[in-house]
Amino acid sequence: MTAELTGTTTRPATAVPGLEQTLRSRLAGEVAFDDYSRHLFSRDASMYAITPLGVVFPRTHDDVAEAVRIAGEFGVPVVPRGAGTSLAGQTVGPGIVLDTSRHLNRIVEIDPAARTAVVEVGVVQDQLNRAAAEHGLMFGPDTSTSNRATIGGMVGNNSAGSGSLTFGMTIDHVRALDVVLADGSTARLEPVDEAERLRRAAADTLEGRIHRELPALVAANEQAIAEGMPLFWRRACGYRLDRLAGHGGASPFDLAKFVVGAEGTLVVATRAVVDLVPKPRRTVYAVGHFATVHGAISATLDALSCAPHQVEMMDRTILDLSRQKIEYADLGNHLVGDPAALLFVSFSGDDEPELVAKLDALTALWERHGHGYHTLRLVTPAEQAALLKVRKSSLGLLMAAGEGTRRPLAFIEDTAVAPEHLAEYTERFAQILTEHGLEAGFYGHCSVGCLHIRPFVDLTDPEQVETMRVVAEKIKNLVAEYGGVNSSEHGDGLARSEFNREIFGDRLYEAMRQVKALFDPAGVLNPGKIVDAPPMTDNLRDRDALPPAPPLTTALSFEVIGSGSASGMRDAADRCMNIGLCRKTTAGVMCPSYQVTLQEEHSTRGRANALVKALSEPDPAAALGDERLHEILDLCLMCKACKSECPMGVDMASLKSEALHQQHARHGTPLRSRLFGAIRTLNRLGAATAPLSNLPGRIGFLRRIMERTVGIAAARPLPRFVRDDLVRWQRGRRPAPGSAGTVTWLADSFTTYTEPHIGRAAIELLESAGWAVQLASGGCCGRSSLSKGLLDDARRKASGLVTALARDTLPGSPIVGCEPSCVFTLRDETIALLGDSAEAAQVGERVRQVEELLVEAIDDGRLVLPERSGLSGRRVVYHGHCHQKAEVGTAATLALLRRIPGLDVAEIDSGCCGMAGSFGFEVEHYATSMEVGRDRLFPAIEAESAGTLVAATGVSCRQQIFHGVGRTAWHPLELVRDALRGQG
Predict the structure, then answer these.
(1) Cβ within 8 Å of residue 894, ≥6 positions away
(2) What end-to-end distance do the CA atoms of the chain give, in Å?
């Protein structure tokens, strides 16, 4: 039996005979007991890892109930789970994990008049808010994880978020819950009067027993509740007996609110009735710039006196990290000076002049009291976009600052005190960290006295583990001194439950244990959380879950690809801290296959964790050839979005390339992979023999033969080869001299032979801008070989091209091209393939975007576009290439399009097109490819009028758009060339 990777020690998993078979026979949903699935669900966004026995993906409320009944029959625990973004270890545990996010994700009803919604627990917060927005409503709690946090998870955790000053916590918005009790019976929890409580209490069921005995339990402990429960209102710790204390008369008995924040230890919720609140029409921000963190916190009370919606703080640690990521770098363009901290104060409502007046009042108040050195006013959504993106990503950005196993850990990050004590409290908090040699980033919700402070700790170092415990105890005592709470929104979990007896006192803690025994007599539901918890230093992910990485020789240099101190392939994969941003479904690119399947294993997080497991096996090279591993990696489109959108910079495209390489070394390389890897040769031959070479793509039975023999989907149109390719065209003309210098044009393997008109347009534009153009057409960058894991072949190709570019082109001349995947390979994978090659580094430094050169030429007056052309008065929607977004972003392309006089330019937030090079041609991937396109890109284009132009920089994107919606997508360079000619 293979040793498991998780648990307090490395030990064989304890199988329960018959459990898996029973679940499969009695449930409609999927059941997974394989080692990889169990490993994927052994982790959440905390510092803990515990391997479950198996994972269930319930399809219905009845599936959940049956799974709980089966767990009781076999005497194993159940761990309910939503997005798995818990920070304190609530969603890891032994037994059966119930992933409610995959199927239980329907919005059943929205009642605008009653301002309520009925949702299944797997509904994501942003999903609910989009539907509610159609009625001018929203769900009040606003977490930074709103694009993946499920309503069930928020109920389990009693989540709050940045708007809690206005809207309170999840507990304040729950009306009723449909739940499964610990014996598998079901119940509707809702406020009931005394007569209804007595009626329910009469039943000889677990629900009846709860309604009978819980009021007496509360009454017997009224004094303990009054004396032991922390007074501060914003709390997500312990069982909320205070919500039942004093019930009677006009006060309803409300078990729905009572189980909010119970972390799945009392019931398993399947459906919720929640309140909605009016969505403010406008929000404006004042962003105070401060020279110190203490100065920012000290300005909070002035901000609160102006009745804000929220007051958020972010320190220099987060700001510096945001500047290093393309995804978030725009914030730096709006800041003044080099602030040590920012204080974001928002005002929300329907009257913009009234809100702006509040900005004026706060600005004046801060000036009068000497708070800060500058206040930035952000009134429009466009002005606020960069701010909001960074604020919601603060956790991920801070996590990205970790190096190796030295990570910013969530064990004291959720305390809260009254805002009037926050400045003094934070100073003493920082002193404790300093005394123990710990560094930390500071950010969070000053308006409610909650700062998320995460010290950097290496859990593989026993001394640092002991330091962590000592600091946790000191902070617990400090927060009690100020009358605060140890957890104000992230819950107890494994990180804080151990201290609950001391926090609540013996009598109240024993009352909570009695509550657990009443609801869950057999201890089936998520044991070890809130009461009877293990020590906080058990089940640590980095200490207990991973053995040292066995040696592995890789073709790619992960010292280059992995950020921070990554020293190998496992370290590069283990950068993932499971915060789950790759589970978002409505914005950005990452992760296109997850957005279609909603399966954990098809997220970047799932794939990274699967690779960590494989790379931790005694023979990692053999494990990288595992069939189950490659099932998990298979739907990765290698779009590289994770490289930029994942705050940790997990580069799954490169990791998959290496995994494929290792698989080929052990099992051989498929013919189709070799064909796609040789795409430049095939395209060159196709162009040389055109038009005859285009015939097979038009003849149905030949396409069907190709599908059966090679696996190229017959439904996918093949590109058309052009005999007069770009190389021939360039040879047959006299190049123009260049007053601006020489630029090297990379003749890529795709457009050169199938769309040479794009290269011609680009070269003509560059020459019109004063550049002499040298065509580099002698080799391939190796992009297609990389995508198929043919890394030795890719290295040979990359080496040949680098040598040619370094020695046969003008030193220092910009290298540009029209196919982003090829151009940007030179500054990423080429360097990883060639290691310490000085020539590769020099070539990478020369890579520019052709759009940048043309924008500079237009702005300098060297390239003059006429005021009127056929494009004047028209609209174009632009879809950016995934690799371009990952490496440099789309700003330069948009800037170039916006230089065309009279052209209305809009960028589509369309994610990945789904084509992804060869992926969309492969018969087993064709359907997924089209589903990805239908997710956002196709509908966005179809919503445009017939007169709207479509532009896309990627050859695959243009193919997919034409195939999916029947619209021609132009390369932006074609549009600029047409504008120069007065055409359109």
Answers:
(1) 878, 905, 907
(2) 68
Check residue 209 and give its pLDDT: 98
Residues paired with 774 in a beta bridge = 744
Answer yes or no: are the C-beta atoms of 689 and 651 closer than 8 Å. no
Chain centroid to CA 339? 27
Q: pLDDT tens digit string along 171-180?
A: 999 999 999 9
Q: Are 577 and 612 in contact (CB under 8 A)?
A: no
CB 260 within 8 A of CB 240: yes
Q: What is the rounded CA–CA span in Å between residue 408 and residue 613?
A: 22
DSSP 551: P
Task: Report how far residue 302's alpha carbon sits from residue 348's, in angstroms, rounded to the nearest whole number.
Answer: 17
SS3 state at 283: strand
- 264-294 residue pLDDT tens: 999 999 999 999 999 999 999 999 999 999 9
Closest CA to 673 of 622, 700, 710: 710
Where would I find the H helices in 381-445? 381-392, 394-400, 419-435
417, 479 contact by CB (below 8 A): yes
Q: What is the DSSP letter of 696?
A: G
Rounded to whole angstroms, the maximal C-alpha distance in the chain is: 96
What's the burial of 839, exposed, middle or buried (CB within 10 Å: 0-12/13-18/19+)?
Answer: middle
Strand, coil or helix: 365: helix
Distance of alpha carbon 464 from alpha carbon 930, whole angstroms: 50
**Pairwise CA distance, residues 842 & 761, whole Å:** 28
Tokens of 433: 């960290």
Note the pLDDT tens digit of each residue in 208-255. Answer: 999 999 999 999 999 999 999 998 999 999 999 999 987 554 589 999
What tokens were used for 232? 């501060």
Q: Is the pLDDT of residue 5 over 60?
A: no
Q: What is the pLDDT of residue 247?
A: 57
Residue with more model confidence, 9 or 833: 833
pLDDT greater than 50 at residue 763: yes
Phi-psi region at 624: left, alpha or beta (left = phi > 0; alpha = psi -120 to 50):
alpha
CA–CA gap between residue 105 and residue 152 (Å, rounded): 10
The CA-atom distances, in angstroms, between 143 and each of 18, 392, 519 are 40, 8, 29
- Cβ atoms within 10 A of the Cβ of 167, count? 21
Owner of token pair 């308006």: 447
What DSSP line would sit under 190-209, residue for residue?
Answer: -EE-HHHHHHHHTSSSHHHH
Residue by residue, what is the 3-state secondary structure of 260-273? CCCCCCCCEEEEEE
DSSP annotation of 276 reads -
Q: Is 282 helix (H, G, I), strand (E, B) or coil?
A: strand
Closest C-alpha to 883, from 917, 921, 924: 917
Instruction: Identify the pLDDT of residue 329.
Output: 73
In 3-state terms, what secondary structure has residue 961? helix
Sequence-distant (≥ 6) Cβ neighbours of residue 429 within 8 angstroms: 415, 453, 475, 478
Distances (CA, A) of 68 to 305, 683, 716: 50, 57, 46
Written as six digits, the tokens of 38 are 């169990």
Cα radius of gyration (the chain): 30
Q: Judging by beta carbons within 10 Å of its beta carbon (0-12, 13-18, 19+), is residue 911 exposed, middle or buried?
A: buried
Q: What is the mean pLDDT of the chain?
A: 94
- Phi then psi for residue 468, to 5 deg, are -60, -45
Do the beta carbons of residue 157 and residue 490 sit within 8 Å? Answer: yes
Digit-coded pLDDT (tens) for 714-750: 999 999 999 999 999 999 998 888 899 999 999 999 9
Alpha-carbon span 389 to 645, nearest angstrom = 11
